[in-house]
Amino acid sequence: MKKFWKPLALAAALFSFSVGAQAGATFDAVKKKGYVQCGFSTGIPGFSFADSKGEWSGLDVDLCKAVAAAVFGDATKFRATPLNTQQRFTALQSGEVDVLTRNTTVTLTRDTTLGLLGVGVNYYDGQGVMVAKTLGVSSAKELDGATVCVQPGTTTELNLADWFRGNKLDFKPVVIEKYDEIVRAFESGRCDAFTTDKSQLASTRSTQFANPDDYVILPEDFSKEPLGPMVRQGDEQWFNVVRWALNAMIEAEEYGIDSGNVDEMLKSDNPNVQRILGVTPGMGKNLGVDDKWAYNIIKQVGNYGESFERSLGGGSAMKLERGLNAQWKDGGVMYAWPVR
């Protein structure tokens, strides 16, 4: 029996070493260079958008900042790589970016065929369609034979075809790669309708059209679109850091911890709050970061509700309702995994 177990033990040790040697490659590389390289959209107000000074803001940008705060204790230690829909997965696969924090739908195919992993959901959305009021339609089912502007290489393109086929309607896709060009094509009348996630439609209507009231988003939902960050497969440590940065923002809101009161909340007797803020040690060590990782996120970036409010909610040009993105206790589906 000893002769039998010895080779097994050696094999197990070698396997354990090989796994450990590969684990943390992205995490270690990020720490070595001193910043997080984040892949953003090329410009979608409310999600990731650069102003005239080149300063980025939005829900997806805040998540990138949260990861930087968790790893370095400094939310400014990130760099932006704007990526269109055709570039985004290649950029992550090749290592050009460390994490993709741009409005990307998590699907089974993307999780199993690209060498990538969806980390979580930071915005629950659904695909819709927008038309000019002058078209005189109140339902997408009235768009038989219409021309529809859509971006290539997206779930949007596939959902559009599925929905029209399922409703036995014809349409002509007008496929345009760059989002800004789609907006211009639609506004100029090149296509009858414009389809993408409803949050983007609302954002575009309120921020990019000269007369927003001239356009209407039709009521149909073509799909479910859980949007969230993605990382490369093979580095569970980095996957965990990104995943728990998102969960910390959501759970902080649930417990009423925000950027304004986080220092006062350090005195809380609630054991959940103590773990989140690092008063009770251990959670940071498990991730390979400082125990104040979540405190740094909340202090410098804010909780999920704060990020939503300034990016998409009442404090933004979009004025979107929380809807599905409200906390689970408030009728939404935002439900963080517990920091414990």
TrEMBL record:
This is Amino acid ABC transporter substrate-binding protein. The lineage of its organism: Bacteria, Pseudomonadati, Pseudomonadota, Betaproteobacteria, Burkholderiales. PANTHER family: AMINO ACID ABC TRANSPORTER PERMEASE, AMINO-ACID ABC TRANSPORTER-BINDING PROTEIN YHDW-RELATED. SUPFAM superfamilies: Periplasmic binding protein-like II. One of its GO terms (biological process) is amino acid transport. InterPro entries: Bact_solute-bind_prot3 (IPR051455), SBP_3_CS (IPR018313), Solute-binding_3/MltF_N (IPR001638). Transmembrane segments: none annotated. CDD domains: PBP2_BztA. Keywords: Signal, Transport. Belongs to the bacterial solute-binding protein 3 family. Residues 35-265 form the Solute-binding protein family 3/N-terminal domain. Pfam families: SBP_bac_3. Residues 1-23 form the signal peptide. The keyword Isomerase does not apply.
